[in-house]
């Protein structure tokens, strides 16, 4: 079997931690650290994402509460664990950890949208030459991985797929279908994704290159899908609204994000229905 089609080996389960409310949890990507006994992740990011979370803490976009991770200031995190981290509010964001309290988490990171870069948005933070190069590279990745037609792609997973980022992206639909054997997991996930879609549509923002981060606790999935599945919207380093881009530009990327979420929800529901049919067939 080619390396990019080999299943990843199962690592040892992490020790259990105290549970936290589902609305208070978020997950981690590469390059971040955990704080406060694993309850919080410390993530280096750009000024756009730092400002986005600061605006949420100040009461902006209340409709997103419950579908985004709770964020903290550096001072709040320092008060919780008594130490300084790698930076502060001028360099990092501090988010509740999606898998905290799970014992055997399986995590799936899905970038949403048929396009993951806008040259106009890139020009707000880099030169024309760098923006052109980055836009070209990301547009090519969108085409190779299927994002441009599918509307989403998997960019990371645990124990689901091994291979390059491009190989993982091309296998996105198969990875989604392999997330769980339990139809209830997919039904719960679809409902959570619908809530994210509704909340995002009500903000007036374009969530360019944002992701949905999904965690499934394999220790609980058969007993209670509602306890098993956690989903949150993350990655706001390229989020923008009409205050920085034209209404047409905002609408274009909002529509692409919404269409990608709609396709993901459709694929999640189809996977759950397939699991239900398999259950009925086994029981007949």
Question: Would you write up a description of this structure?
Answer:
By secondary structure, the protein is α+β, with helices and mostly antiparallel strands. The protein is built from ten helices and ten strands. It has a four-stranded antiparallel beta sheet with strand order 1-2-4-3. A four-stranded antiparallel beta sheet has the order 6-5-8-9. β1 and β2 (40-44) form a beta hairpin. α8 runs antiparallel to α10. The two termini are 34 Å apart.
Radius of gyration: 19 Å
Helix-strand pattern: EEHEHEEHHHEHHHEEHEEH
User: Mean of the pLDDT scores?
Assistant: 87
* Count of alpha/pi helices: 10
Shape: globular
Cα-to-Cα separation, first versus last residue: 34 Å
The major β-sheet equals: 4 strands, antiparallel
* Class from helix and strand fractions: alpha+beta
The largest beta-sheet arranges its strands as 1-2-4-3
Task: Offer a quick outline of the entry.
The protein is of the alpha+beta class. The chain is 41% helix and 16% strand. α8 packs antiparallel against α10 (247-283).
Layout: helices, strands, pairs:
Elements (H helix, E strand, L loop, with lengths): L32 E3 L4 E5 L2 H11 L13 E2 L1 H8 L10 E5 L8 E8 L6 H4 L5 H18 L1 H4 L1 E6 L7 H6 L1 H6 L5 H19 L4 E2 L3 E7 L7 H4 E6 L4 E2 L6 H37 L1
Antiparallel strand pairs: 1-2, 2-4, 3-4, 5-6, 5-8, 7-10, 8-9
Helix pairs in contact: 8-10
């Amino acid at each position: 079997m080619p390396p990019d089609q080999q299943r990843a080996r199962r690592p040892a389960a992490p020790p259990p931690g105290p549970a936290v409310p589902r609305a208070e949890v978020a997950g981690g990507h590469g390059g971040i650290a955990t704080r406060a006994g694993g309850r919080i992740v410390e993530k280096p990011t750009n000024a756009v994402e730092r400002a986005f979370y600061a605006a949420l803490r100040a009461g902006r976009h209340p409709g997103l509460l419950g579908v985004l991770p709770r964020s903290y200031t550096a001072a709040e995190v320092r008060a919780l664990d008594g130490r300084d981290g790698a930076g502060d509010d001028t360099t990092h964001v501090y988010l509740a950890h999606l898998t905290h309290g799970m014992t055997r988490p399986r995590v799936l990171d899905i970038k949403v949208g048929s396009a993951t870069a806008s040259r106009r948005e890139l020009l707000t933070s880099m030169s024309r030459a760098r923006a052109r190069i980055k836009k070209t590279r990301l547009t090519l990745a969108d085409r190779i991985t299927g994002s441009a037609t599918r509307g989403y792609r998997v960019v990371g997973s645990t124990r689901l797929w091994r291979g390059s980022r491009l190989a993982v992206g091309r296998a996105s639909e198969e990875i989604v279908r392999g997330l769980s054997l339990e139809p209830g997991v997919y039904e719960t996930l679809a409902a959570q994704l619908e809530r994210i879609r509704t909340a995002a549509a009500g903000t007036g923002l374009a969530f360019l290159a944002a992701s949905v981060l999904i965690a499934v606790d394999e220790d609980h999935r058969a007993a209670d899908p509602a306890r098993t599945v956690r989903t949150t919207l993350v990655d706001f380093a390229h989020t923008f609204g009409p205050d920085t881009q034209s209404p047409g530009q905002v609408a274009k990327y909002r529509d692409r994000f919404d269409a990608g979420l709609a396709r993901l929800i459709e694929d999640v529901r189809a996977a759950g229905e397939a699991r239900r049919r398999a259950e009925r067939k086994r029981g007949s």
